[in-house]
Design a protein that fits this description.
The chain has helices spanning 2-20, 78-81; strands at residues 22-25, 29-33, 38-40, 43-46, 59-64, 86-89, 100-103, 111-119, 122-135, 142-144, 148-149, 154-161, 170-174, 180-187, 193-201, 211-218, 227-234, 237-249, 259-267, 271-278, 281-287. The protein is mainly beta and 291 residues long. The strands form seven sheets. It has a four-stranded mixed β-sheet, with no helix packed on it. The radius of gyration is 31 Å and the shape is elongated. Keywords: Signal. It comes from Culter alburnus (Topmouth culter). Residues 141-173 form the Ig-like domain. This is Ig-like domain-containing protein.
């Protein structure tokens, strides 16, 4: 039964391949900022017999989903063309690299886009789309805070999307905690890019419950004023008991009840116990469940 099911699936897949004629690989969804640009990472494959068309000055375009039915018809006017974003092909189509850049984006350009490849006597379209979302605001940075222990080196990591290579966001920390900051642009698994900033510092008791902001500054092509976005985290620093104090309630008389209280400042909280250190003297000790 499994072999029969696989045969049916293979037949459907083959039929889809023959109908589409091209298999392009790009993210399902991409987010961009108004007034900036957007890189669409893209690779494609076509059948062996069609590869000859890649040597005939191929041209790649991205068809807007809401205008799909108007392409290649007399109804597709210059007014419709003005609704399309400016496109630049940065990949080498002869090497099956269709990476493109959308420029001067506005929120009106949010739509589904389909990849099309054309050359002399050859035209194919990808049946799946990429959803482009253009926003007037920035996405919130993503901050990772590890377990922080007093006296041990800690790293705070902030990651910000970098959809436009000509306007890479700058990441800052407030406060910087007197630490060292390392920042770089990294390539993600889906071909997109992001900026990662790592704040390296040594936590102490004064950092416990402190609010720290990761701030992303994004410059735009058509605006003098940059966009800002931030993420606030509250630090939780583990530290051993400090400021241990003993207090008593009641009068110290032979045969009277006496309440002794032992307190200390620790994170996580310490467990205390009493023991007789010397005849006539009581000492408070603690059991700390931290590092």
């Amino acid at each position: 039964m499994l072999a029969a099911d696989f045969l049916v699936f293979s037949s459907i897949l083959s039929a889809a391949w023959c109908q589409a004629g091209i298999k392009a690989l790009y993210p399902k969804t991409l987010n961009a900022t108004s007034g900036s640009c957007l890189v669409i990472p893209c690779q494609f494959n076509i059948s062996k017999e069609k590869e000859v068309f890649l040597d005939r000055s191929p041209v790649a375009t991205w068809l807007r989903g809401s205008l799909w039915s108007l392409y290649d018809t007399d109804n597709f006017t210059n007014a419709h063309r003005q609704l399309e974003p400016q496109m630049k092909m940065v990949g080498d189509l002869r090497k099956k690299n269709c990476t493109s850049v959308m420029m001067n984006l506005t929120s009106l350009h949010s739509d589904r886009y389909f990849f099309r490849l054309q050359s002399e006597g050859f035209s194919v379209r990808e049946t799946k789309s990429v959803q482009i979302n253009v926003s007037d605001s920035l996405a919130e940075p993503r901050v990772i805070v590890p377990v922080l222990r007093e006296g041990e080196v800690g790293n705070l990591t902030c990651t910000v999307p970098a959809p436009c290579p000509s306007a890479t966001p700058n990441v800052t920390w407030d406060p910087a905690l007197g630490g060292n900051i390392t920042q770089w642009t990294q390539l993600n698994a889906d071909g997109t890019q992001s900026v990662q900033s790592i704040l390296n510092f040594i936590p102490s008791l004064r950092h416990h419950e402190l609010k720290v902001n990761c701030v992303s500054t994004h410059l735009r092509d058509r605006e003098d004023k940059p966009l800002l976005s931030h993420k606030t985290v509250i630090l939780n620093v583990e530290y051993p008991p400090k400021e241990t104090q003993i207090s008593l309630t009641g009068s110290v008389w032979l045969g009277n009840n006496l309440t002794l209280t032992c307190q200390s400042n620790a994170n996580p909280s310490a467990a205390h116990r009493w023991f007789m250190k010397k005849e006539g003297f009581l000492t408070c000790a603690f059991l700390y469940c931290g590092p």
